[in-house]
Amino acid sequence: MTQHPRTLAEAAALEVEAARRNGLYGATWDTKARSQNNAAQEDRRKAKRHAACRLYLGALADGDLTIAGLARAIGRTPSAASQQSKIIEAEGLLRRYSLGDRSWAAITPAGRAWLAEHDSAGGEA
Q: Which InterPro entries does this one have (predicted)?
């Protein structure tokens, strides 16, 4: 015989109980599972950010490039290269400047140190 809840709280309690019985509670509502998922997502974002920084800073290690030249060097569109270079500039690893009608990018001393640290560590840090 099924129980019929009399209040909203009883209905919620019955729903949680049923979810636990069916093994769904940990996957959908458990805060520990959610925080582990968030940590995994953050690890993936960090790895992606580090890979982008290594790619951009590695291309700039030999000298300054225009944003269009940087885009060609790394195989991206100028728009994408410009957007990502702004993000890396905000971290202080590269400097963007205008010369004439072109935008240029240059690696900063902090960017060289970051690149040396992360290349020697095999990309991990």
A: WH-like_DNA-bd_sf, WH_DNA-bd_sf
Per-residue burial over 14-44, b if 16 or more Cβ lie within 10 Å, else e, is: eeeeebeeeeebeeeeeeeeeeeeeeeeeee
* Tokens at 125, concatenated: 């840090």
pLDDT in tens, 81-123: 999 999 999 999 999 999 999 999 999 999 999 999 987 655 4
Mean pLDDT over 44-64 rounds to 91
The number of domains in the chain is 1
Residue 48: is it exposed, middle or buried by C-beta count within 10 angstroms (0-12/13-18/19+)? exposed
Q: Quick check: is 67 in a domain?
A: yes
Instruction: Determine the structural domain holding residue 101 and report its residue range.
Output: 8-120
CATH number of residue 63's parent domain:
1.10.10.10
Identify whether the C-beta of residue 43 lies closer than 8 Å to the C-beta of residue 33: no
Reported as a single tens digit per residue, the pLDDT across 8-17 is 888 888 887 8
User: Quick check: 34 pLDDT over 80?
Assistant: no
Distance CA 84, CA 53 (A): 9
